UniProtKB/TrEMBL annotation:
<keyword id="KW-1133">Transmembrane helix</keyword>
<protein>
    <submittedName>
        <fullName>DUF3149 domain-containing protein</fullName>
    </submittedName>
</protein>
<feature type="transmembrane region" description="Helical">
    <location>
        <begin position="12"/>
        <end position="33"/>
    </location>
</feature>
<keyword id="KW-0812">Transmembrane</keyword>
<keyword id="KW-0472">Membrane</keyword>
Length: 46
């Protein structure tokens, strides 16, 4: 396990790949929360 962390922090391609992937997942989760909140707060058309 120590080798994985050493390689993870020493390889910029691997580090940036996981960083960008994490950022995309966080943005997707935010937008799911945002739209679900807006849907629940909206009024039903009559």
């Amino acid at each position: 396990m120590n080798v994985f962390f050493r390689d993870f922090f020493s390889d910029p391609v691997l580090f940036l790949s996981f960083g960008i992937l994490g950022t995309v997942i966080v943005l997707c989760a935010y937008y799911v929360y945002y739209f679900m909140k807006k849907i629940n707060e909206s009024e039903a058309p009559e």
